[in-house]
Amino acid sequence: MSVTQSLRPIPFIDLQAQRARLGRRVEERIERVLAHGAFIMGPEVGELERRLAAFAGVRHCITCANGTDGLQMALRARDIGPDDAVIVPAFTFVAAAEAVSLVGATPVFADVREEDFNLDPLSIAPAIAAARSAGLRPAGIIAVDLFGQPADYASLETIAAEQGLFLIADAAQSFGAALHGERVGRFGHVTATSFFPSKPLGCYGDGGALFTDDDELAAVMRSLRQHGQGSDRYDHQRVGLNGRLDSIQAAVLLAKLELFEQEIVARQEIAGRYDGALASHANLPRVRAGALSVWAQYTIRVADRDRVAEALKADGIPTAIHYPRPLHHQPAYAGFPIAGSGLARSEKLAGEVLSLPMHAYLDGVTQDHIVASLRRAVAGSDVGRTASGYR
Q: Where is the active site (predicted)?
């Protein structure tokens, strides 16, 4: 049997390896839920919120049904809606723009930095100008921490304070990361995250959470999560949504949280191996000084991206494109304002990015196979180069 055949199939994210490491932890947690029968807002939800708040170093964690609901809850808590504009990066998953649209506000697309894929603070001013030109009130920013690295919150928080903007840190891909010694969860006015199964900390279904030190904001978001509830379940103080995390998903997350710190360390080691082996073969992801990425994805940049992906596929290696089309080119969002005369970096990255298998249980033999295949794919040509050269 060849090396390639013996390694097939290689999972892009290996949840089964994690499950084996967890042993009986998940089953035991779920069995407790089955025994007490409080399937909605059971004791596991409160325990998880306390432990996540302690992990992030904030006063409040409000769990919710999914990350998109979390973004909506944060926006609604500040009464952001019609005639308001919220600035979002164009190079990201659709959820940020979707949440803005669902509350009746208008997403305004800004550009990102090439080096870290995150929202460019220099694109905020032209985005504000575009919003005002469209007759909208600039009200907020959603900064998405793409691929696991926190955005430049020092700059973004300064801009938000100067312009009176509500800053949401979208940590759907970065929970567990840190910036200058502070963990994700402490940035912006509120941080939202997702526990989709493929995330660094994921449940076995949909789930999400919000983090803040603002007592009033936390109280409103808790109310919004449960149909705008006031003093009891039949007292409705505001229009809310059914955004609760169920007890079984909380139980899964509690079990996984026991291993999370170790998995973050493992992700650093795996990313370091990729860095060392691929430095001369592709444009590699960069982590800014003072930042710790949780490596939700390991995303390189190559020219002739599709050919490289096909070569890896032929060797049994899955890849993914995060993301093949920027949001301002999506049919549902094509008519919304954009910063300046165009979003060139978002468009360029969409044509070059390629995500390699990345998870805390990626063993050295498998990673060596991935590296060797990628090297072969780019050998003897310029496909590893981008307009900005190698890393």
A: 199 (proton acceptor)
Q: Are strands 353-356 and 298-301 parallel, antiparallel or unpaired?
A: antiparallel
Name the segment(s) of the chain with CATH classification 3.90.1150.10. 260-378
- pLDDT tens string 221-250: 999 999 999 999 999 999 999 999 999 999
Q: Is 199 a catalytic residue?
A: yes
Question: Both tokens of residue 347?
Answer: 């468009």
8 A C-beta contact, residue 298 and residue 320: no
Query: What are the residue ranges of CATH 3.40.640.10 in the chain?
Result: 18-254
CATH number of 18-254: 3.40.640.10
- State mean pLDDT over 282-306: 96
Residue predicted with more confidence, 48 or 3: 48
Count other Cβ atoms within 10 Å, centred on residue 272: 11
Relative to beta strand 208-212, strand 190-194 is antiparallel
pLDDT tens-digit series, residues 205-223: 999 999 999 999 999 999 9
Q: Name the fold adopted by 260-378.
A: Aspartate Aminotransferase, domain 1 (3.90.1150)
Distance of CA 68 to the CA centre of its chain: 11
Q: How confident is the model at residue 122, as a pLDDT?
A: 98
Check: CB of residue 208 under 8 Å from CB of residue 195: yes
